[in-house]
Amino acid sequence: GVHWCLAVTDFRKKTITYYDSMGGSNSEACKILLQYLKQESLDKKRKEFDTNGWMLLCKRSQEIPQQMNGSDCGMFACKYADCITKDKPINFTQQRMPYFRKRMVWEILHRKLL
């Protein structure tokens, strides 16, 4: 099967943070993303990307909500992104997933974020 996770690149804080709703840690994904930034900088800007001061982080299962089934990982990844982009705490629960799914369908159909 496929498992969805989220990685967030924050240029202001110089961090790449990995979020996994099943508690996994994937520092390799963060390293690959940092390498991608270096390659993109060379390709698009024709200059070296300065990686000094950048931190690669993996959120621990105690720090973020965890899924209790094998089917909500995509919704968890979307909710992590939703909270991060709105600068809100990541404190939702598994029990709210049916509501979040319905809300996402509404947002897509109405082309409007709530």
From TrEMBL:
<dbReference type="InterPro" id="IPR038765">
    <property type="entry name" value="Papain-like_cys_pep_sf"/>
</dbReference>
<feature type="domain" description="Ubiquitin-like protease family profile">
    <location>
        <begin position="1"/>
        <end position="84"/>
    </location>
</feature>
<dbReference type="GO" id="GO:0016926">
    <property type="term" value="P:protein desumoylation"/>
</dbReference>
<keyword id="KW-0645">Protease</keyword>
<keyword id="KW-0378">Hydrolase</keyword>
<protein>
    <recommendedName>
        <fullName>Ubiquitin-like protease family profile domain-containing protein</fullName>
    </recommendedName>
</protein>
<dbReference type="GO" id="GO:0006508">
    <property type="term" value="P:proteolysis"/>
</dbReference>
<comment type="similarity">
    <text>Belongs to the peptidase C48 family.</text>
</comment>
<dbReference type="GO" id="GO:0016929">
    <property type="term" value="F:deSUMOylase activity"/>
</dbReference>
<dbReference type="InterPro" id="IPR003653">
    <property type="entry name" value="Peptidase_C48_C"/>
</dbReference>
<keyword id="KW-0788">Thiol protease</keyword>
<dbReference type="Pfam" id="PF02902">
    <property type="entry name" value="Peptidase_C48"/>
</dbReference>
<dbReference type="GO" id="GO:0005634">
    <property type="term" value="C:nucleus"/>
</dbReference>
